[in-house]
Amino acid sequence: MKRCPKCGRTYANDTFSFCLEDGSILSSPFDPQKTLVIPSPEKPKVIPLEILSNFASYRHDINIVLDRGVVTVNNTIMRFPSSVKPWERLFGEPNRRISEAHTFHIWDDLGLRFREGMKSIFAWNDLRIFLNLGKDKDEPDKVYKGRLLIDGSELDCMTTVDHINNLKQGKSFRALEKKGNEPQTLFALHDKRLSLYLETDLDQIVQYMMIQADNIS
Predict the structure, then answer these.
(1) Cβ–Cβ contacts within 10 Å for residue 177, how many?
(2) Distances from the Cα of 215 to the Cαs of 82, 98, 116, 125, 149, in angstroms?
(3) What gap in Å lies between CA 124 and CA 17, rounded to an integer?
(4) What H or E segment, with its residue span, contains residue 3?
(5) Which parts of the chain fold into alpha helices (H)?
């Protein structure tokens, strides 16, 4: 069967090419008895309310940019490794300090944490930027709401690892080896003297990014 696209008249004879009423070219042959199957729409993903709240309240008064192994914060180059002092000059006094095998300097309102290792036990240090929060006591009270870019790819509380790798320049984040059937939630990128780590949830949405350097001399 064919149909006229202008007047809607149908023709059982598929040898017809033109409508006898208005001369329009007829449609391609079709089976009027065939059931049209419309695929079910994909079930929408439920986004937790706390993530939506984080996204809605983003601000850009802090800009952390990683570009080809160089870290800048509000256009100030930050050297790694370093002590906590340069970070205190940028962000002010931390809200909390937790001292165990190493010292956590935590800026609760900024969503940032600097870990300073004791030379006798842990000689490395790192900066963690929390885009989403868990329940650990050494995490800040609030998420980071500034701007965060890695080689041209911008991160926020909804960003996935694939999204970062698709947009960033240079090396991609690679999954670290996992044990058994555990889901993959840790990814790493080694760029010059820096090691970058992403921890994600089961949907590979980034929870935090960690910038780690070599030993403090």
Answers:
(1) 6
(2) 9, 20, 10, 7, 25
(3) 78
(4) strand 2-3
(5) 49-56, 85-91, 161-167
Rounded to whole angstroms, the Cα distance separating 173 from 79 reads 22
Tens-digit pLDDT profile for residues 42-65? 666 565 655 555 545 555 589 999
* Rounded CA separation 79/81 (Å): 6
**Residue holding tokens 């095998």?**
101
Provide the 3-class DSSP secondary structure of residue 161.
helix
Residue 165: phi and psi, rounded to 5, are -65, -30
Residue 131 gets which letter from DSSP?
S
Of 116, 118, 56, 54, nearest to 85 by C-alpha is 116
Q: Is-contact 204 107, C-beta < 8 A?
A: no
pLDDT tens, position by position, 122-145: 457 899 999 999 888 899 999 998
Q: What is the pTM of this model?
A: 0.70
Place of tokens 């240090």: 125
